UniProtKB/TrEMBL annotation:
Keywords: Calcium, Disulfide bond, Glycosidase, Hydrolase, Metal-binding, Signal
Enzyme class: hydrolase
CC cofactor: Ca(2+)
Any one GO cellular component localisation term in the record: endoplasmic reticulum
Family designation: Belongs to the glycosyl hydrolase 47 family.
Stated name of the protein: alpha-1,2-Mannosidase
Recorded catalytic activity of this chain's protein: N(4)-(alpha-D-Man-(1->2)-alpha-D-Man-(1->2)-alpha-D-Man-(1->3)-[alpha-D-Man-(1->3)-[alpha-D-Man-(1->2)-alpha-D-Man-(1->6)]-alpha-D-Man-(1->6)]-beta-D-Man-(1->4)-beta-D-GlcNAc-(1->4)-beta-D-GlcNAc)-L-asparaginyl-[protein] (N-glucan mannose isomer 8A1,2,3B1,3) + 3 H2O = N(4)-(alpha-D-Man-(1->3)-[alpha-D-Man-(1->3)-[alpha-D-Man-(1->6)]-alpha-D-Man-(1->6)]-beta-D-Man-(1->4)-beta-D-GlcNAc-(1->4)-beta-D-GlcNAc)-L-asparaginyl-[protein] (N-glucan mannose isomer 5A1,2) + 3 beta-D-mannose; N(4)-(alpha-D-Man-(1->2)-alpha-D-Man-(1->2)-alpha-D-Man-(1->3)-[alpha-D-Man-(1->2)-alpha-D-Man-(1->3)-[alpha-D-Man-(1->2)-alpha-D-Man-(1->6)]-alpha-D-Man-(1->6)]-beta-D-Man-(1->4)-beta-D-GlcNAc-(1->4)-beta-D-GlcNAc)-L-asparaginyl-[protein] (N-glucan mannose isomer 9A1,2,3B1,2,3) + 4 H2O = N(4)-(alpha-D-Man-(1->3)-[alpha-D-Man-(1->3)-[alpha-D-Man-(1->6)]-alpha-D-Man-(1->6)]-beta-D-Man-(1->4)-beta-D-GlcNAc-(1->4)-beta-D-GlcNAc)-L-asparaginyl-[protein] (N-glucan mannose isomer 5A1,2) + 4 beta-D-mannose
EC number: 3.2.1.-
Signal peptide boundaries: 1-17
Pathway assignment: Protein modification; protein glycosylation
Superkingdom in the source lineage: Eukaryota
Amino acid sequence: MSGHVHFLMIAKTLGLALSPAFDVYVHGIPAKDFDTATKLARNIPSLAEVGSLQLEFKYLARATGYTMLEEQVDRISDLTSLDFYPYVKLFSYTQLAKQVDEKYTNGLLPVQLSMHDGKVITSKITLGANGDSYYEYLLKQWLLSGKKDDKFRTRYITAVDGIMNKLLGKSTPNGLIFVGELVHGKLEPKMDHLVCFVPGMLALGYMNGMPEEHLTLAKQLMETCYQMYAQMEAKLAPEIVYFNMNESVEEDLLVSPNDAFNLLRPETVESLMILYRATKDETYREYGREIMKAFEKNCRLERGGYASIGNVAKGPIKIGFTKEMESFFIAETLKYLFLLFSNDSVLALDDIVFNTEAHPLPINKADI
């Protein structure tokens, strides 16, 4: 963004220091933690962790000319897809591919992969914690390539079909559409606030030629995410909600006391910004304005900064659930609120792709 070569050199140094992490295991999937000094790797990575390195390393490869950085993350993309084409003969992935075909259809994958043999570890399928940005990056890798790398477009469409067919539910009594979690083949009506990136993802896809039904679902899920705020006493969303499926219960949203905290997360306002740019519906700006007012009322501290809330649902509002103001509040939440009320030309979505931490990366428009 600044054009200062110094920052590029720092990024290159870090990228090259992390590069050996992709060579620790024969399949190329890095461990969760990697010591750049000792080259020791440990802990099992999640799907989101191995599926959201690609934008950063691909852009770094393009900016520095170190193409191996892109090749390393492309290898991960192949392993975490439903394809596994180049690796079946080299490694024993035939059984893995069969397992995926039988259990994890429609482009949806479980949230854990073994760092030792690359096989999936039987676990839930979710677009929430540990799964979220894998799906987001399918679309964004296609966009970052200038819409030239169509394998990611295909994988994204397949995954959205899977979401529509496997993960959607409707609450009682008011029929809120939600994205649940698939556990042992059964849909659980649980939705993390993290999942509220999905309306924005679908709207961004629609802006780039995806079908109208994607935008329709985006609007439905956006309303659900807004209700996660509007129906709480603090007018701020809890970390996790459960959707009522029992006709004898009058409330659509159920919140456990352990999940009633708010960490100033960005996903809902991110989606509001993209939905507004896609539709020009002023409703989305109004929703964003309400959320910002709730942050100002409940979270802003006299000495400066903002604090998390311990309980947004019922009873006295507890300020300062944690001692930290998470960095994503400034880097993402406030940035997306600013963009929601800015002209479309400010960080235009035709020119840049936001990574999962809201850092803008310029789209490769060469030879488009």
